[in-house]
Amino acid sequence: MLKGLGKNTSHWLRKYWDDQRTAKNLPTVPCRLSLIMELNEQRPVVHQVAAQYWDRPSSEVGDALQDITVIKRTGGKIMGFIPAFEGHPEVFYKVYFYDRGFNFESTGLKAANAMPHIDGVTVPEVVAIYPKHKAILTEKEDWGGERTGLQRFYVGSLGIDWFKVGRWLRTFHDSQVSQEKNDYFLRKKFEKIESHISDLQGLFSAEQVGKMRKIIEDARKYFETAQIEWVISHGDFGLSNIQKKGEDLEIIDFEDCQSAPRAFDVLNCLTRMEYAKYFFNRPYTFTDIKHNFLSGYGIYSEYSKIDNFFYLLIKMDIIETYHRRRKNSRKFSKLIFFIFEKVNKKYLSLWVKKTTN
Which of 47, 160, 301, 333 has its CA 20 to 30 A from that of 91? Predict the structure, then answer.
């Protein structure tokens, strides 16, 4: 069984949920029964994955199964560590319970492991992929401790070589290029921006919302008529998925990997670090990061209608996150999220006015 479950399931679930709720500012769990049912469904699959990795029947490794750990789980996936056993080293596992996530991540990891090596940048090394169980095993990594929220704000002091990051992303993109449009990607992005506008329209004037909708419609028409380049995209490329591994960097978390325009990964990375222009950093920090990153990536065209759409989408996604967390937070955190929401809203409003004039 998974470590902490069994007779102590109720206690373990309560502690697990409380830890997650504290870390993510989630409300009190509405129904532990649902969580128990999900875990009871996921647990046997993890057991089967471990037994296959150890090359032993589950009936012969009962004691070892108790040492499997869970570090994160949702209804769609569970992840943690399978311990070392009889010559098999400890590994990180991620098991999916829906096809698309497994297909995206396995495709991304395979491509990242097969592409030309960029000095000083690594990716998780795949140990095994088990399609039957939608499971991916990778080497256990030591990133020297997870960054705190405060450390992430001081982005200039993290020791990241942004030129190498840009060079890695360009090489990854160039490893798979086509002209075939990814309709799923476009549908999900347009659905998300419409959802954000609906949820956040109270923060903006009718005129501002109208200008946002023009940016969206311009992009929609552009995608319908223009011939653009589609590349293999990380899908969530940014600071949170760039870890320090000794003197090297490691790019992680490929579960959103699919084909997309080059601009999406580039803008997602840079836009989500724009806070470095006005929070806790020297004035030139973001300028230096952007220059080094784009120099590493190589030639990158000026903003187009789809670039404007992606920038608007990402900025609205940032504001929506702060807006949602502010509602579910205590006093001090509520104030911090309110400030971040307000500053991002201000800069987005100025950008929308400038872009649509």
Answer: 160
Tell me if 1 is assigned to some domain.
no
**Spatial contact of 278 and 269, defined as CB atoms under 8 Å apart:** no
Residue with tokens 């920038």, as numbered in its chain: 311
| 74 plus 162 within the same structural domain | no
Note whether residue 319 is domain-resident: yes
Q: Using alpha carbons, select from 326, 324, 321 the residue that is nearest to residue 338.
A: 326
* Of 139, 168, 199, the domain-final residue: 139
CB-based burial label for 253 (10 Å; 0-12, 13-18, 19+): buried
Residue with tokens 């940016």: 215
One domain, residues 352 and 217: yes
pTM: 0.87
User: 294-327: per-residue pLDDT in tens?
Assistant: 999 997 665 678 999 999 999 999 999 999 999 8
- CA-only gyration radius of the chain, Å: 22
Specify the number of domains making up the chain: 2
144 within some domain = no
Confidence of residue 348 (pLDDT cuts 50, 70, 90): very high
- Is the residue at 205 inside a domain? yes
Q: What is the structure's pLDDT at 141?
A: 80
Return all residues near 73 (Cβ < 8 A) that are at least 6 apart: 38, 39, 42, 79
